[in-house]
Amino acid sequence: MTHSRRLLVAMQGKGVFVIDLERQSVACGLNDSIVVAASPGQGENLFAGTGQGLYKSTDGGKSWQLKGLEQYKIFSLAFHPSDPATIYAGTEPALLFRSSDGGETWTELDGVRKLPGRSKWCYPAPPYIAHIKGVAIHPEDPEVMYCSIEEGGVIQSLDAGESWRYVSKGEAETFRPVSRVTGVYQDCHVVRISPHDPDSLFLTTGDGLYRSDDCGKSWRRIDRGYRMKKYFGSVVLHPDDPKVIYTTASAAPPSGAKNESSVYKSMDDGVSFKEIATEIRPLYIVGWNGFTMDPLDAESLYFGAADGKLYNSADGGESWQKLDVELPSEGRIRTVACAP
């Protein structure tokens, strides 16, 4: 079985850590990172979003160069499905930028700035500035895109990011925590497009896990009734089996005193969920991108906990082992990603 060779970890306030999964060795760079990603098909090209701009490495993380956006916090990165040189970056304040040259230069897609009600977007912790926490691109029609905004809802573009509209609430609806039109909680974390049916979207929020099967026209909450925790972070969809869904949730936001987390798995397309990784206690998962699946082996899963520990499952989440690597225990793991 082929596996990814490296694991990328972004720790806010600590930097980027590149873990050789065969040697269990760690290389570190930068002094801060919120999100990290490997360019598809170009594994030595890595990107790191930090609290002060976007960095790129062309040597697998040995060295990093600032590539702009230094006046922004970078919260999300996404690649065009057929052109890895086209990259999108979501920021704080909640804006979207695109690079068409592999991250060398960036242009703002100012349609996000023109959305009505934007002045009401607000992240509750000081300085109360919203951010784009997730970007999803249609795998067959990259003109179609979605962004999840903390806190501002989910927006959709049908023209590759030039113009946008709300899909998590009514267009004319004033901002409120829960939409009266769709019922979606507007503190939105991660939006994912199903690899099996691109009309199907999955959305994690500060109060619930939601699903839409009509490109965001209507939504339903799919976590109720299973004693699941309500503050959702990651959602991971199996590339081969449409019935398998993974998600993580906490009892409270990361700043909460009692925010113990759980990992859940559904094997019936979200009809029901069971808690997995129950042998790890206590467990605190902070990052909304802190749980990932190896793109080369869908049975291999990884997640990072708030105490800097990393865990792996080689059997679809049935059993877990701690990776024998040392990361700063006081750093918050925001993103875990595989580099083939």
Secondary structure elements and their pairing?
Elements: E1 6-12, E2 15-20, E3 25-29, E4 35-39, E5 42-50, E6 53-57, E7 65-66, E8 73-79, E9 87-92, E10 96-99, E11 107-108, E12 131-137, E13 145-150, E14 153-157, E15 165-166, E16 188-193, E17 201-205, E18 208-212, E19 220-221, E20 231-237, E21 245-250, E22 261-266, E23 274-276, E24 291-294, E25 297-304, E26 310-313, E27 321-322, E28 332-339
Antiparallel strand pairs: 1-2, 1-28, 2-3, 4-5, 5-6, 6-7, 8-9, 9-10, 10-11, 12-13, 13-14, 14-15, 16-17, 17-18, 18-19, 20-21, 21-22, 22-23, 24-25, 25-26, 26-27
Describe the structure.
With 340 residues, this protein is mainly beta. The chain is 0% helix and 42% strand. It has no helices and 28 strands. It has strands at 6-12, 15-20, 25-29, 35-39, 42-50, 53-57, 65-66, 73-79, 87-92, 96-99, 107-108, 131-137, 145-150, 153-157, 165-166, 188-193, 201-205, 208-212, 220-221, 231-237, 245-250, 261-266, 274-276, 291-294, 297-304, 310-313, 321-322, 332-339. Strands 3-2-1-28 form a four-stranded antiparallel beta sheet, with no helix packed on it. Strands 4-5-6-7 form a four-stranded antiparallel beta sheet, with no helix packed on it. The chain starts with 5 loop residues before the first strand and ends with a strand.
